[in-house]
Design goal:
Blueprint lengths: L8 E8 L3 H11 L4 E5 L4 E5 L6 E5 L5 E5 L3 H10 L3 E9 L2 E7 L5 E6 L4 E4 L5 E5 L3
Parallel strand pairs: 1-4, 5-8
Antiparallel strand pairs: 1-5, 2-3, 3-4, 6-7, 7-8, 9-10
Length: 135
């Protein structure tokens, strides 16, 4: 059954910040997390967790919440709603794939992300320059 389980891994933990520079001052400069990417248009920056593939995503627009990596957002929605969960928003296309928000029967909000379009590419300063398909 675990091969069919839709939630593959924690892609990111979103943390709300008043502005990206203040968030980066604390998490990058103060705590030492490396900047992976920054997208000012989205009000987000991704930081590396050194012993994990999970990112810390600082956001000026989203509430604190876990983002779950799934193979397909649409298939994960189907599985979760069939099991008693509820679709809250989406699915929506994003630069790196698709995203949706669901809840379990207990009211826990789960953000589902697939990277079907690839991963961000960045310049030497971490600014997003595009998206490259997964190899």
């Amino acid at each position: 059954m675990s091969a069919q389980a839709p939630l593959r891994s924690v892609d990111a933990v979103v943390l709300a910040v008043p502005d990206l520079d203040a968030g980066l001052e604390f998490y990058r400069d103060g705590l030492g997390h490396d900047l992976l990417w920054r997208n000012d248009d989205l009000g987000q920056a991704g930081l590396r967790c050194p012993e994990s593939a999970t990112e810390i995503v600082l956001s000026t627009r989203l509430p604190p919440e876990p983002n779950w990596l799934v193979r397909s957002v649409d298939q994960a929605i189907d599985a979760i709603t069939a099991a008693g969960g509820q679709l809250l928003s989406g699915p929506t296309d994003i630069p790196v794939g698709r995203v949706a928000a669901v809840s379990d029967p207990f009211g826990n909000r789960l953000v589902l992300v697939d990277l079907s379009a690839g991963r961000y590419t960045t310049d030497q300063h971490g600014q997003v320059t595009g998206v490259a398909p997964e190899p």
